[in-house]
């Protein structure tokens, strides 16, 4: 889980920026996914999952930075990057299937 990995990052100036951004993007993914569950229309559902996909792509970017900046986070960071890519693929399929 992303939140667990950032707990152990050194509080350098660079990491603090990344931590703030990744917390925002990863929590937005979860919130929008939950919002989609209660969507009142197909359009609303698609909007929520489109936001989830955008936030997942942003989260992947921040995870890559964490891996680059922190040697101790490389193994768990790479696993999270792969999970993020899987989420992007799943959400993209949900969006595609809903549109068709």
UniProtKB/TrEMBL annotation:
<dbReference type="InterPro" id="IPR012657">
    <property type="entry name" value="23S_rRNA-intervening_sequence"/>
</dbReference>
<protein>
    <submittedName>
        <fullName>TIGR02436 family protein</fullName>
    </submittedName>
</protein>
<dbReference type="Pfam" id="PF05635">
    <property type="entry name" value="23S_rRNA_IVP"/>
</dbReference>
<dbReference type="InterPro" id="IPR036583">
    <property type="entry name" value="23S_rRNA_IVS_sf"/>
</dbReference>
């Amino acid at each position: 889980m992303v939140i667990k990995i950032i707990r152990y990052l050194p509080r350098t100036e660079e990491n603090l920026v990344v931590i703030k951004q990744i917390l925002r993007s990863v929590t937005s993914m979860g919130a929008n996914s939950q919002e989609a569950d209660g969507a009142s229309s197909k359009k609303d559902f698609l909007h929520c999952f489109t936001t989830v996909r955008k936030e997942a792509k942003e989260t992947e970017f921040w995870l890559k930075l964490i891996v680059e900046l922190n040697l101790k986070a490389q193994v768990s960071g790479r696993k999270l990057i792969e999970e993020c890519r899987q989420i992007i693929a799943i959400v993209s399929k949900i969006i595609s299937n809903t549109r068709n």
